[in-house]
Amino acid sequence: MAVPPDVVEKIEAGYKKLQEAPECKSLLKKYFTKEVMDQCKGLKTKLGANLLDVIQSGVANLDSGVGVYAPDAESYTLFKPLFDPIIQVDYHNGFGPNQKQPQTDLGEGKTQLLPDLDPEGKFINSTRVRCGRSLQGYPFNPCLTKENYTEMQDKVKGVFDQLKSDPELGGTYYPLEGMTKEVQTQLIKDHFLFKEGDRFLQAANACRYWPTGRGIYHNDKKANLTKFLFNFT
C-alpha cells in the first residue's frame, strides 16, 4: 500500500520547516537531506509505518537533540539512509550497521563475581537496573493502536500470572486504567507510579490512548518492579 499523498505532503513540509529553522540543531535536520527525503518518503513498513512517523516529533520540536523515533523494528532498515548516519556517526559514535551487539549474558551463576560496593551499608539505599523490550509482531508505540495496547497488556499479564507461586517474583499487576485513588496514592508514595510522557514523545504519537495498556508490576516484597509499556524510544 502506497503512502497517502497528504502524508507525503506533510513529510515535504517537515523537511522545509527544518531547513528554514536556523535555531534547529537536531541530528534529524543534519541528516535529513532532500536526497534522503526523496528516497524514503514513499516507503512504508509491513506494519504500516512511514517516514512521517519517524520524523514528526523532531519537526514539531525544533529544540530536539536527535528528533527521530523508530515506529517499528523494520524502520531501522527501511529508512536506513536517515537512521544509519545518525546512529553510526553521532549517537553511537562509530557503531555501524554491520556490527553486532555482544552475545547475551544475563549473569546466571555469576552474581558472586560482583563486588560489594557498599560493604558497610553507609551509602547505597537501593539500586535499579533498567531494560526495555518489545513484543514481536507489534510496532513500537508511535504506531500502536488501542487494540494493540490491550492485546500486549493481556499477554504480559499472562506471564505475570505464572509468577504468582514464586516466593521471590510473585506479586501484583496494577493497570493504570481503572486504578483506585487509594492504590494510586500508595504507589506514588512508594515512588513506583509514573506519569504520561513528555512533549517529544507526545509529538511522536507515543502517548496515545493513555492510560490503556499501561501498568506496573511489582513483587510482594516490592523489591522487583516492572513498568509496562511506558518507555518506548
From TrEMBL:
Its EC number is 2.7.3.3. One of its GO terms (biological process) is phosphocreatine biosynthetic process. Residues 123-233 form the Phosphagen kinase C-terminal domain. GO terms for molecular function: arginine kinase activity; ATP binding; creatine kinase activity. Keywords: ATP-binding, Kinase, Nucleotide-binding, Transferase. Pfam families: ATP-gua_Ptrans, ATP-gua_PtransN. Residues 10-92 form the Phosphagen kinase N-terminal domain. ATP binds at residues 126-130, 191. GO terms for cellular component: extracellular space. InterPro entries: ATP-guanido_PTrfase (IPR000749), ATP-guanido_PTrfase_cat (IPR022414), ATP-guanido_PTrfase_N (IPR022413), ATP-guanido_PTrfase_N_sf (IPR036802), Gln_synth/guanido_kin_cat_dom (IPR014746). Belongs to the ATP:guanido phosphotransferase family. This is arginine kinase.
